[in-house]
Design brief:
Helix content is about 10%, strand content about 20%. The protein is an alpha+beta fold. A four-stranded antiparallel β-sheet has the order 2-1-3-4, covered by helices on one side. A hairpin with an 8-residue loop joins strand 1 and strand 2. The relative contact order is 0.26.
Length: about 100
């Protein structure tokens, strides 16, 4: 299984549509404290079905929705799309990508 891409919209600190492209090999996400690195891991947990607010580092599940700021409104929805590479046919469907 190969994680190809992660698209986030309205999830925690990701107010704008954000895409992470993962290549082959090792991928590291680096940045200063407070930049949202752990929110990426939380998004992966959430898209895989995690429903525990505690494990998603949220007091209640509404906390995973972008809360807004002085310059930007609160998001109305959360969208996380994980795209997996199926070029080797590990899933029994005839498409190279599964999202």
């Amino acid at each position: 299984m190969f994680l190809k891409r992660l698209d986030l919209y309205g999830f925690k600190s990701f107010a704008s549509r954000t895409t992470f492209e993962f290549g082959t090999g090792i991928t590291a996400i680096v940045g200063p404290n407070g930049s949202g690195k752990s929110n990426i891991a939380d998004a992966l947990r959430w898209v895989l079905g995690e429903q525990s607010g505690r494990l998603l580092r949220a007091k209640k599940l509404d906390d995973i929705i972008y809360a807004g700021s002085a310059k930007r409104q609160r998001s109305e929805k959360v969208e996380v799309t994980m795209t997996l590479d199926n070029s080797k046919g590990w899933l029994p469907i005839e498409t190279p990508d599964v999202a």
